[in-house]
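Hi both,

Apologies for the delay on this - the queue was longer than expected. I finally got the flavin-adenine dinucleotide-bound model through. Below you'll find the protein sequence and the ligand SMILES exactly as submitted, and right after that the C-alpha cells for the full complex including the ligand.
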Amino acid sequence: MDPMKADNLIIGAGIIGLQLARKLQQDGQSVILIDQQAPGMGCSYGNAGILAFEEIIPLARSETLMALPQMMLDGLSPLSLNKRAIMANAPWFMKFTLAAKRKQVIRGTRTLANMMMAGTKSWHNTIENEGLSQHFKTNGLLRVFESNDQFYSEEGDRNTQQLEGVELDLLNPDEVRALNPHLTRTIKHGVLYKNSMHCLNPLAVSQQLFQNFMLAGGTFVKAPVSGFDKNPDNGAHYRFRALMDGPAGLLAPSNRMEKWNVAETDQFITDHLTQLNQDIGIIAQNLIITAGRASDSLLAPFGVSLPLMSERGYHQMLNGQHLDGFDIPISSAERGFLTTPMANGIRLAGTVEFTRPAFPPYWNRAALLGKQVTDLFPDLKIMDQPEQWFGDRPTLPDYLPALGAIPHHKGLFVATGHQHLGLTLSAVSADLMLGLIKQDAAPFELSALDPMRYS
Ligand SMILES: Cc1cc2nc3c(=O)[nH]c(=O)nc-3n(C[C@H](O)[C@H](O)[C@H](O)COP(=O)(O)OP(=O)(O)OC[C@H]3O[C@@H](n4cnc5c(N)ncnc54)[C@H](O)[C@@H]3O)c2cc1C
C-alpha cells in the first residue's frame, strides 16, 4: 500500500489538536490526525467547561507560593501536595519558583491578556463557523467568597484584570443570591465576570469539531504513536513519518458521514475503522505535536526538553440534576473548584494533585468535591455513585503554553502546556499556530510561549 500523505500530521485529537486541524483545513491544507483513543477523550473530556477569559495572570506567582504551606496542612485544600511530591518533582518546582518572579509574571500576564483578548473573538468565530452555538452559554462566571480575607487578597488581581480590559461587577450577598438562590447564606462577596462563557458538554464540542474535520476531507488514524522517522523520502518533499506502537485503524473521509450522529462518535469510529498494517507509512511535510501531557516524550528525541507536569484534577458529574435559577457557573474562591450547569446535569470539577501520568487516581479527591459542594449548595443531592473522572492537565512551570516551531527540524511544531485553560485558549492557540506554520507576522509578542524556553 502506498504511504498516506498530507501537508500536516497532527498527533493528539484533544481540543488543541482538533481546533488546529480545522484551522489548517480552512486554510486549504490537508491534515491527518492521529490519536490512540477517540477524539476528545483525554484531558479535554471532563473539564469544567469554562471559557475563562478573565484568567490573565499565570498561576506561577508569589501569592501561590505563599499559600502553599497552609494548603499542605489543610486536608480539605483544593491542592494536594506533600513533601514527597515536592522532592519527586524538585526540578519542576525550582523552575516554578523562578517563573513566580515579578518580572516573569508581568511578562506572562501581558501574553495571556493578549491571548484572552484575541481568544474571545476567536471562540465567537469558531462557535459560528463550526455550528457549536447549542453547546455554549454566555451568562458569565460568578466567583464567590466565604471570607473577607480571601476577597480582599484578590483585590490586586482584580485591578490587574480591569486594567487589561476584563469586565467585572462586585456583588454583595443579596446580589449574589439573586443570581443563584441555591447558594449558602455564608457567601460574603461575589464577582461576576461578565464576558466568560461556559460549555454545556465539552465532549460534544470535540466531537462536533471532529465530525466537521472528517466531512471536510480529513483522515483519522486511531493508533498509539511511538516516534518518528525524519526525511522518509530523503527530504525531497515529506519530512516526517509516524511510527506506530500497536495496532492502527483508519477512518477515511466518506459520504456516509453526513448521516453520522455526533453523540455516537465512538461507535461510529469503531464501526468504520479499517485495520491497518502496523508499518503503514503516514508521511507529512509538517508534524505537529498536540498530545497534551504526553507531548514531552514525543518531542524528546528532537532535543526538546519540555518539563510538563501532570497536574491532575477530578470531576463528579451529577447526571440528571438541574436546579431552577442555576444558570451561571460558580467558582468557589476558598474551596478551589467549579460548579457548572451542563446539558446532562451539574458538573463539579477542579482540585490539583501533582503526579505522574501512570499513577493511579486518588478517588478521595473526587469524593471531596461532593463534600464541598453540599456545603456550598445545601439543596444539591449527591448520588450514591456519581460519574467520577480524572484528567492530567499539561502544565509547564510558568503556567504558559508552549506554541511554535522547533528549530533545526524544519516542519516540526508543538502546541501544548495549556494547564487549567486548554478549552479557553484552544481557539486562539489554533489561530496563532496557523500563523506560525505559515510564517505570518505574529499579532502580538509570542516569545513567552517559545517551546524551546526550557531546552
Ligand atoms: C478537572 C479539570 C477541569 C478543567 N477545567 C477547565 C475549564 O473549565 N476551562 C478550560 O479552559 N480548561 C479546563 N481544564 C484544562 C483543559 O481540560 C486542558 O488544558 C485541555 O483539555 C488540554 O487539551 P489537549 O488537547 O492539550 O490535551 P488532551 O485533551 O489530553 O489531548 C491530547 C490527546 O493526545 C493523545 N495522545 C497522547 N499521546 C499519544 C500518542 N503517543 N499517540 C497517539 N495519541 C496520543 C491523547 O490520547 C489525547 O486524546 C480543566 C482540566 C481539568 C483536569
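Main takeaway for now: The longest strand covers residues 309-319.

I'll put the files on the shared drive as well.

H.
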